[in-house]
Amino acid sequence: MPFIRSSDAVTHEIHGARFVSYAAPRTGSKELAAWRGEVPPGTKAPAHTVSREEIFLVLVGELALTLDGRTERVGAGDTVIINAGSTLSVENPTDRTAITWVTTSVGLTAELADGSVLTPPWAN
Fold this sequence. Notes:
The protein is an all-beta fold. It contains no helices and 12 strands. It has strands spanning about 10-15, 15-25, 30-40, 50, 55-60, 60-65, 70-75, 80, 85-90, 100-105, 110, 115-120. It is globular, with a radius of gyration of 14 Å. The two termini are about 15 Å apart.
C-alpha cells in the first residue's frame, strides 16, 4: 500500500522516546524504513551501534547527538549521516520535545553496550 495515513502509523516507545513508524515492510516498503522520533525533554537514549546507515533529520527542537565519541548539538533543519557501524547516543537537554525524521534500510539492528541487540520493529 503506497499511501500511509497517519492513522495507520504504528507507535513504539523505548528508552523514553516515541517512534512512529510509517515506512516498513508491514506497510509495503521493500528496501527503506522511515519513522518520526519524538524525544521528550531530559531523555537520554543509551549508546548503540547501528548495522545500517541512517539519515537523521531534526524537524523541531534541539538534541545533543554523540556520534563515535564526538558530541554535537543539532537543531531544526540539521541532518546527521550515521554510517553503518557507528555508535551513537541521543539526548534532549532542553525543555521541549524534539521531533526527528529518520530513514534507513530495512534490516537495521542496534547493538547496546551490554552486547544485547535490538531489532527495532519500526525499522523492520
